[in-house]
Amino acid sequence: MSVTISDLTKKSILGYSSCLSATDSVARIVSGVMKPSEIISECIAHIEEYEMKVGAWSFIDKYRAINEASELDKIKPEGPLFGIPFGVKDNIDTHDMPTAHGTSIYEGSQPSRDAACVAGLRFSHALPLGKTVCTEFAHRAPGKTGNPWNLDYTPGGSSSGSAAAVASGMVPIAIGTQTTGSVIRPAAYCGVIGYKPTYGDFNTSGVLANTPSFDTLGFFSKEIEDMVLIRRALLDDSIPALLNDSLKNVKIGIAVEPYWDNACDLNMSMIEQVESLLIRAGAQVLKFDGTEAFKNLEQIGTNISGYEFARTLSHERRCFYDQLSPILRDGRMADGFKINYSQYALSIQEMERLRIKLDDAMSRVDFVICPSAPSTASLGLHETGSASFNMAWTWLHTPVVTLPIAFDTKTELPLGLQMVGKRHQDDKLLTHASAVLKYLFK
Question: How is the chain split into domains, by residue range?
Fold first, then answer.
């Protein structure tokens, strides 16, 4: 086995042409070098060439997007994402496109309003190209999407289509959601940047709930700078630009818990190589001791997630039970009926205590690193991989970024480096992520 540190955003995948990043596209539009209609036409050309192979989309409305881009050609650019095409995960409402939640139960279902995140990006003059494939109700039963690096391998889930669409150059950015590992894992598998924000930072109105105590939006791109534009569009213009910070004297923790024993040899090698490079950059690298924050975490989180998810899908359980997949009925939904309300309430209280313990542990470092998934993507499209390396950070509400920095030379599949920041310090995390990328690939 051999793992190579490499900037995967610059690496050609199966001959796919990469579209411009959102940051580069905005710069070209503002400078007059390109028009929004030219940006959208490039993305549509990539969709027409690659979608039959990748299967990233559940619905595409290219004619509406072309018309809207042509209208933007006529006005002065304004807004962080002016003229930028994006994909929308199929569990997120759009008033002019169907939202099927990854299930035939709601095939062709048309919401009457946009989710807050879609409306926010539209306010910024970004252009939704269509709906990307997600697993059934953003749980575990996969859709049709293949991994652009090798179509016989899983792209991960549940935000399968969003990750694959960005990886194959069909859109520069896409929206996903994460309840356990549904952004970070597919981003790592597909070799793109994934960002899962601090819980509660982004409004989830119009996003089908899974586990409201954990649900967050998430985003995919090939440049860290694109995440800044997304944050400005959906939050406000006080979001700062990335600083040109060095890594000198930055304190970086290597997380060896939880689930470190599940990491493959490739991941171990990646972390060792990254550690050596970060030390060379002047960073202080130390073992991260967050043990107290992880005690009984999996059981506590399973209690909360199962209890809430079973009730989120009360209507479907009552009216369409036989149309739900066995993995959904026998998985998280079944978990929800193994505990009562008193146990659920105690789990909610205990989870918040664990978050406070993690806050205390995180106060000793600037950020934490660990693998983004136990291994590279697994062979076959029948499952979406393990979220074990993501669940702690999601359930404890921290912001997370995965960087596509490593490559398995045997399978030619990507590995991601997961960076974990402090709650509500997402901008610092993104700045550190940018610094890591610049140093590794200077």
Answer: 3-246
Number of other CB atoms surrounding residue 326 within 10 Å: 8
User: Residue ranges of the alpha helices (H) in 207-258?
Assistant: 224-234
Q: What is the pLDDT of residues 100-118, one digit of tens each?
A: 999 999 999 999 999 999 9
Is 292 in a helix, a strand, or coil? Answer: helix
Q: What is the pLDDT of residues 264-310, one digit of tens each?
A: 899 999 999 999 999 999 999 999 999 899 999 999 999 999 999 99
Q: Strand, helix or coil at 404?
A: strand
Number of residues in the chain: 442
Residue with tokens 């800044």: 228
Residues 6+ apart with CB under 8 A from 87: 56, 57, 128, 129, 130, 131, 132, 161, 162, 165, 166, 170, 171, 173, 174, 175
d(CA 438, CA 79): 27
Write down the pTM of the prediction. Answer: 0.98
CB count in 10 Å sphere of residue 380 = 10
- Confidence tier at 260 by pLDDT (50, 70, 90): confident
Q: Are 122 and 128 in contact (CB under 8 A)?
A: yes
Q: Which CATH superfamily is domain 3-246 in?
A: Amidase signature (AS) domain (3.90.1300.10)
- How far apart CA 401 and CA 143 sit, in angstroms, is 24
